[in-house]
């Protein structure tokens, strides 16, 4: 079984001008989940930001120092994940290979074709229940109206980012 997976990575950005608002993790440097780097980089962001905010620096100085360091190592990790999205899982597979590896699609550099192993195919039926349980946990106690409002706000934010509005 082979299926295309489109993986979109963040593009490098410069530090921003807001004196007290910053970003960390996937909010600023989204990367392929295949390497397992994203969570670790987000934790590194949080640790660095916490250290700087509890130092002798002002909030603005801590934020500036954080962004300069985070943007360097964060986008280095993004670049590594873009170049080898499944970098720790062996060499690229031949097209149609049943060995559970990944290869880039020649027609779309941001897409990867993943070939599942037999063990991977056996795990496929277990994925939807996990997503369902996670969704139920995340939305517990939130009304359908609140979820709809949140959904609309997130869509508007995505549109704003796509159009470059400030």
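^ structure tokens above, recovered residues below v
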């Amino acid at each position: 079984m082979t299926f295309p997976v489109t993986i979109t990575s963040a593009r490098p950005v410069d530090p921003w001008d807001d004196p007290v608002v910053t970003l960390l993790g996937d909010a600023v440097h989204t990367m392929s989940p295949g390497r397992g780097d994203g969570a670790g980089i987000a934790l590194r962001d949080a640790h660095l930001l916490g250290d700087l905010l509890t130092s002798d620096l002002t909030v603005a100085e801590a934020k500036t120092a954080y962004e300069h360091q985070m943007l360097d190592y964060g986008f280095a990790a993004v670049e590594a994940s873009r170049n080898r999205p499944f970098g720790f899982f062996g060499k690229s597979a031949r097209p149609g290979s049943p060995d559970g590896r990944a290869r880039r699609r020649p027609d779309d550099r941001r897409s990867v074709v993943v070939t599942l192993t037999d063990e991977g195919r056996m795990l496929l039926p277990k994925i939807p229940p996990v997503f369902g349980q996670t969704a139920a946990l995340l939305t517990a106690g939130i009304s359908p109206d609140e979820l709809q409002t949140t959904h609309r706000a997130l869509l508007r934010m995505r549109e704003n980012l796509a159009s470059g509005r400030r």
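Helices lie at 38-53, 59-83, 118-123, 127-139, 144-163.
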